[in-house]
Amino acid sequence: MVAPIESPCRNLCSLDAERRGCTGCGRTLGEIVHWRSMTDAQRAAVMARVQDFEPIRR
Q1: Which of 26, 34, 49, 58 is the most buried (most CB within 10 A)?
Q2: Is 14 helix (H, G, I), strand (E, B) or coil?
Q3: Distance from the Cα of residue 38 to its chain's centroid
């Protein structure tokens, strides 16, 4: 059995000014909320999009 794809969360959680996404991992609010119910393919797509995301430090 293959383990599910781990979350890209870096424990630097904070929403951007528009409250659309996390400044720590780069995921959208919807991706964060639905992470546990996403398929592996959906998670992989998110991981590909945020793999080079640099956290926004305030």
Answers
A1: 26
A2: coil
A3: 12
> What are the start-end ranges of the H helices in 1-58?
29-34, 40-50
Residue type, 40: D
Per-residue model confidence as pLDDT tens digits over 37-56: 999 999 999 999 999 999 98
- One-letter amino acid of 22: C
| Nearest partner of 7 among 31, 23, 16, judged by Cα | 31
Q: Which residues of 41-54 are buried (b: 16+ CB within 10 A; e: fewer)?
A: eebeebeeebeebe
Which residue in the block uniquely carries the two structure tokens 């590909």?
Answer: 48
For residue 42 the two structure tokens come to: 């959906």
Q: Which residue has the tokens 């119910």?
A: 37
